[in-house]
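My current task is to audit a protein record that another person submitted. Alongside the sequence sits a line of tokens, each denoting a local backbone shape. Where you disagree with what is written, explain briefly why. This is what I was given:
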Amino acid sequence: MLSRSGEEGEWVLLELPLAAEFDLEKTVCSHGLFMMPPNHWDPLSKTFSRPLRFSLYDDDEDDDDSSVMVRISHPIDSPHSLHVRVRIAGSLSPKQQQTIMAQVARMLRLSDVDETAAREFRSKVKTVSSTETDCLKRFGGRIFRSPTLFEDMVKCILLCNCQWPRTLSMARALCKLQLELQNRSFSVSVNGAANAKSRRPETRDEHFIPKTPAAKELKRKYGGSKVSINLTSKYVETKADLEADTHLSMEHGQMTIEDTILSPTLSPSSREGNSFKECNICDTSSKLNSLDLYLGQRCSCGNEEGIGNFPSARELASLDESFLAERCNLGYRAGRVLNLARGIFDGRIKLKQLEEVGGRANLSAYDKLAEQLREIDGFGPFTCANVLMCLGYYHVIPTDSETVRHLKQVHSRKSTIQTVQKDVEAIYGKYAPFQFLAYWAEVWHFYEQWFGKPSKMLCSDYKLITASNMKIKKRVKTNRTKTS
């Protein structure tokens, strides 16, 4: 364990040994979960950062629930280990080190079971000889997930019945709420639905339309590529979809210069005589003054605002449902999230036991785990299958309208919600017990064809990955009159 001090504060360096075949960029940028706050991938430095807690579960009141910023990188000169930098004043206790490293290993699927699954998937793909396996061969066999099972479960709830931009906005709102809870800027009781609005803190809802005109921003980022043309031509349609889906108004999105200066995103630099700010994500001094920030400029890492960690079950359990629904725009999902948090906090839902059973990825335990999850309010087949995928079960594909779209566009299958499960078994059954990995490798490759590599995108563009932006426009045939 090494420590370093400097203008960015004090960082402790930990090293995590790796197996022979591991690619940080490919592993992190392998699923939409990596795009959901508070996760942050920097495409320039190829570094992943986010806050992590000194506790894994919420059922032990003696655990330290505080968070620290963690950066994960894979230097070229260190091929057999990850560098995990923890920002903390002082040193880390052995228990704190163990907890941080356990969360990093969970996110990147570095356990022996995960390593075996990735290796066996690659071997399975090699046995299937066809042109469709090209993208599967490039897929690493690891799917990014959250540092804790609770965060995975909540985010799986956020994936249900809404467009991707709405999912991102709900996750971001929860992280902003956590920062306020952490700073104790307000309190909300469990029994107070009638007064939820009166206790609602003053907030500035973010409008999820790029502050820079889309055509200029995309042209600047992608040059004259096909991606730029596709995304720019879809901008007007996407903007309308986003406004309707998030139910946000420009009225709530207005900010003053003073608001920007006081935002927790960029804190005043310790150096006197300037108005530069320091980004809380990448911890570098941004050469932007207050006016630049007000006009919508970002730090080079792409960070737009300061957010906290993803809230823990302990932090959410005491909140009022009406308040949470309105504050984070969760709608009916607020009740499901709170029921989950309270069930964990009072000991009715044992996450540690679920994790231990699921960690072995024993197919015989799948039905038992699925049954336990279905007993939780709001955990239907799609959500359960997603959670179990996060636990390492890849033989069941979570199917929804996105699956129907994929089978239609890639496999020319006229599937419906009623027939899609049978169709995916027919297509991906040959990859058992890794049907989901094969399916997801195809889906992810399809996204890359439309939008470019997700690992190269700025986080401000994640919301552009929508089904409406993947519609193939039919060309209108015109009758031409032959002239002599």
User: Anything to note?
Assistant: The first strand starts at residue 2 and ends at 6. Residues 188-278, 280-304, 474-478 have pLDDT under 50 and may be disordered.
